[in-house]
Specification:
heterodimer, A: 100 residues, 0% strand, B: mainly alpha, two-stranded antiparallel sheet, 26 helices
Chain lengths: 100, 640
């Protein structure tokens, strides 16, 4: 029997993996992918609660998150391409133009 | 016509505004005549009001015209108003009349100067302020004029501001006057505190009720007012600015010494005659300071070689006479001398300016001599002025000076001796200047001698008018003859309250005619003594002055250097103030004020440079900050 707790634990694990990816990976593309992972972990939570509570609001939120995620990936990849053209790398440790 | 009294100060103000603001491209002649005629118009108005005043009954010759209420605040009610009475009338006539003549002379004298327009604008402003001073009907408006003439004297003495000595002299005049103004202002506060009003009529009308004869309050008020007068009228101890004031153009000296500025102090003391009459101590102080100044300045005048400097010290000395007259209670005589002095001192300064004009700016009498052939008009007019100031019958100075000496003798023999000795010296140094400048051998330097020329008519005609006034100006105040002292009778209503207080208790006996005649004889003898002494020393025996100097070198150097008073003041006041200011600058301004300002900036900067370490530019660091922040917030929400 798969209960709500299973979904929530999976979601928490996915989210933590995403956070760790954002924190510790250097490749900008991988960081963007980790961000997607975090968003989808949240989506999973929404869907699980929607099913458990028998309410549609969670599913609507999940759809919105997908739209935002798509837009975010578009912008993020465009920035990545621009940075690669300028710097010749997508290593975030090399990108510190905003430094003091 | 009396309703139009406000026009008298307004005309010069209009002249000032035109010349100061819009006359930028006007030709010199137009600027000069705008300036002159605006003062001339004031004179015309003043004369017509004067004629109207003469028509009136002597007792009722006093009228106030309030233009509008100027300040209304609590108990303080000050109006912008004018007072027309014999005293202010005489002052207005002298200021605008002599001022007009000096303006006309200036057109010729200042021809071709760079700041011609500026000069006439300031000159008009000067006359405007002086007219406000003498025509005001309350102390505060008088103070406005009082400060105004101080400002204008600064502007005009420092007219050649590129010259260090001129701008220094301007500052000195302003600062020294400021010291006197301080006393004057405190006096005004005390008057307001005592009477609750600053209006002349209110104050003088209530003086006998609110003040006790010889009380401490009235003594304090009058002494403070007199401090103001010593500053403005160049008396001991605040006289040092006047000799330096000749750094300005010569007509300015004439204006300061004759019509405007220095007469303000005498006028103010005469205006407050009631208050002074209530304070015998103050009167004695005024008389002693006046007599001492008359004597002291005359001794300095003897030793100077600069023709304008001689005249400057003679002004201080003559002002001393006027104060002595006021001090012994003869206010009318003081004002009489003020008027005749205005005529002959303006004449002497303008004639000296004419000499200077001819000599290409030379002022040292040792480099003059035998100029009477080359400059006949200047010589004769200067001689008229000298005869008048020396007090030789029938010139104007004879009558006024004799009157002062007469009243001093009635008060105290000491004052008379001071005055008489000063008179001998006055006669001596004035004839000395005549002989050194116009007689004897020519000591003119060849370069200057080449350019020697008589001044243009625009300068000569004013000299002649003043010479005539110096000759006949005394006729309005002939003593002895019953009713002939028209001037004194004209002023009597103004000074009657003061005289009533002074003669309180004992009736003033009419002085004997014999005594007056004898004193006149003595006055004349005094004047001629000076004349012959000067003639002996500078014409018949030209080596005599050097022999005297060789005999008393210390005395001569002491007097020649003006008793080292300037140096003493520098040492006592100027340097100590400068040093104290420097101490404040270094210790307080630099350390405390700048320390606070710079300290605030340093703390902010150091704080910022520490915090900016967080701005690493790395996305990971920012993400970590967000994560930590989120954890803290969640932790708080969970654990609270």
């Amino acid at each position: 029997m798969v209960t709500l707790q299973h979904y929530l634990v999976l979601s928490a694990i996915l989210f933590t993996v995403g956070v760790m990816g954002v924190m510790f990976r250097r490749n900008l593309i991988v960081i963007l992918m980790s961000l997607e992972l975090m968003l989808n972990a949240v989506n999973l939570t929404f869907i699980a609660f929607s099913r458990y509570l028998g309410s549609l609001e969670g599913q609507i939120f999940a759809l919105f998150v997908m739209v935002v995620a798509a837009a975010e990936v578009a912008v993020g990849l465009a920035i990545a391409v621009a940075i690669f053209r300028m710097e010749g790398t997508v290593d975030v440790n090399e990108i510190d133009l905003m430094k003091w | 016509m009396i309703d139009l009294v406000w026009l008298i100060p307004v005309f010069p103000l209009i002249g000032f505004l035109i010349n100061g603001l819009i006359a930028r491209s006007f030709p010199e002649k137009v600027i000069g005549w705008i300036g002159s005629l605006s003062v001339g118009a004031s004179f015309v108005v003043a004369v017509s009001i004067f004629l109207e005043l003469l028509e009136m009954d002597p007792a009722s010759r006093s009228a106030q015209r309030v233009v509008y209420t100027w300040i209304l605040s609590g108990d303080l009610n000050v109006s912008f108003g004018f007072l027309v009475d014999p005293l202010s009338m005489v002052m207005m006539l002298v200021v605008s009349g002599v001022g007009f003549i000096i303006h006309v002379y200036s057109i010729g004298y200042m021809h071709g100067e760079v700041g011609f327009r500026r000069y006439f604008a300031y000159l008009n402003l000067f006359v405007f302020n002086m007219l406000i001073l003498v025509s005001a009907n309350n102390f505060l408006l008088m103070f406005v004029g009082w400060e105004g003439v101080g400002l204008c004297s600064y502007l005009l003495i420092g007219y050649y501001y590129e010259k260090q000595s001129a701008s220094d002299a301007g500052k000195k005049a302003f600062v020294v006057n400021r010291v006197g103004d301080f006393g004057f202002l405190i006096g005004l506060f005390l008057i307001f505190y005592t009477f609750g009003s600053l209006n002349y009529t209110d104050v003088f009308g209530a003086a006998t009720d609110k003040l006790t004869q010889g009380g401490a309050l009235v003594t304090a008020i009058t002494l403070l007012l007199f401090v103001g007068a010593t500053g403005k009228s160049a008396q001991i101890p605040l006289y040092t600015w006047l000799p330096d004031a000749m750094e300005g153009p010569t007509p300015v000296s004439a204006l300061i010494h004759a019509a405007t500025m220095v007469t303000a102090g005498v006028y103010m003391v005469a205006r407050c005659s009631v208050l002074f009459a209530l304070a015998p101590v103050s009167l004695t102080v005024v008389a002693v300071i006046g007599g001492a100044t008359a004597f002291y300045a005359a001794t300095i005048g003897i030793t100077q070689f600069d023709i304008k400097r001689v005249l400057a010290y003679s002004t201080i000395s003559q002002l001393g006479y006027m104060f002595m007259a006021c001090g012994v209670g003869a206010f009318a005589s003081g004002i009489f001398h003020l008027m005749t002095h205005a005529f002959f001192k303006a004449l002497l300064f303008l004639a000296a300016g004419s000499v200077m004009h001819a000599m290409s700016g030379e002022l040292d009498m040792r480099k003059m001599g035998a100029l009477r052939k080359k400059l006949p008009y200047t010589y004769w007019t200067y001689l008229f002025g000298t005869l008048a100031i020396a007090g030789i019958f029938p010139f104007a100075g004879f009558f006024s000076k004799d009157e002062i000496l007469f009243y001093s003798l009635q008060r105290n023999l000491g004052f008379w001796i001071l005055g008489a000795v000063a008179a001998v010296m006055t006669s001596f140094y004035m004839f000395r200047s005549v002989f050194m400048t116009f007689w004897g051998e020519s000591r003119v330097e060849p370069e200057a001698a080449h350019h020697l020329h008589e001044s243009p008519p625009l300068m000569i005609v004013p000299l002649m008018i003043l010479a005539v006034l110096s000759l006949i100006g005394g006729a309005v105040g002939i003593p002895i003859l019953e009713g002939a002292n028209r001037f004194g009778n004209f002023l009597d209503p103004v000074f009657a309250p003061a005289q009533a207080i002074l003669s309180h208790g004992h009736h003033a006996e009419h002085p004997s005619v014999t005594l007056e005649l004898a004193l006149m004889g003595i006055s004349l003898a005094i004047a001629f003594t000076g004349l012959f002494l000067a003639r002996r020393m500078y014409i018949t025996d030209p080596d005599a002055p050097d022999r005297v100097i060789d005999k008393f070198p210390e005395v001569h150097s002491l007097v020649y250097n003006k008793y080292w008073i300037d140096e003493l003041y520098d040492f006592l006041f100027v340097n100590s103030i400068v040093n104290f200011s420097r101490f404040l600058w270094k210790a307080f301004d630099d350390a405390v004020i700048d320390g606070i300002v710079n300290g605030v900036a340093t703390v902010t900067r150091d704080f910022g440079s520490t915090l900016r370490r967080f701005q690493s530019g790395l996305v990971k660091d920012y993400a970590l900050s967000i994560l930590v922040g989120v954890l803290v917030v969640i932790g708080y929400l969970v654990l609270r």
